[in-house]
Amino acid sequence: MDVNGITGVSTNSVAAYTAGSSSAKTTSTKSSSYGTDAAAVYEKSDEAKKASSNSALIKKLKADTESRLSQMQNLVKEMMLKQGQTYTNADSMWKFLASGDYTVDAQTAKDAKDAISEDGYWGVNQTSQRIFDFAVSLSGGDSEKMDKMLEAFKKGFSQATKAWGKDLPDISSQTYDAVIKKFDDYKNSKTDTE
Asked: What's the pLDDT tens digit per position in 67-87?
């Protein structure tokens, strides 16, 4: 067969020249109606494989860190909004009850008050502890990652305030202060043990 002055090769195999530690492989060829198809396969050296593997690991770790920071920001935002809404509902409830124009039963009012009490589920102590525990869990206790978690907390709180449309209720500010204290205490305990 002659295509533009080139004639086809009719060999059944092609041997690749291998000198020293070359990584080329010999491959067999297959004949086709257009001639012979031959290929050499490049195999990476162990160093190239390690470099490629390290690069992939670094990318994975960076993506994981970004994902965890985003999780932290979203958690704080959602928790602060929920806490603020619960507080507002309870505060509004008390104002509503004080007006005398209500049909709310005592149990509902008590439940709302208990939810935001000092040790209630949406109170300062439990909410700040949940946020801090989540940060420790996501960071694995790594000091540098905890610094990033603190920044994520602050950003989440800021986003919650913005979503709220004005300053969050006082209980949220108290929770913010309690979380900051937990981060400070954690950092001081790490500094003392080093």
From this structure: 877 777 777 778 777 777 777
For residue 27, list its beta bridge partners.
14
- What is the 3 state secondary structure string of 81-128? HHHHHHHHHHHHHHHHHHHCCCCCCHHHHHHHHHHCCCCCCCCHHHHH
- The two structure tokens encoding residue 116: 């935001």
pTM of the model: 0.50
Question: 47 or 143: which carries more pLDDT confidence?
Answer: 143
Residue 76: how many CB atoms within 10 A of its CB? 26
* Residues 176-185 pLDDT 10s: 999 999 999 9
Contact at 8 Å (CB) between 112 and 88? no
Helix axes 170-193, 143-164, angle to 10 degrees: 170
Query: Nearest Cα to 176, choosing from 141, 131, 143?
Result: 131
For residue 30, the 8-state DSSP code is E
- Listed as own residue / partner, the contacts of 62-67 with beta carbons closer than 8 Å and 24 or more positions apart are 65/145, 65/148
Helix (H, G, I), strand (E, B) or coil at 66: helix
Query: What are the helix (H) ranges across 141-169?
Result: 143-164
Q: Which residues pair with 14 in a beta bridge?
A: 27
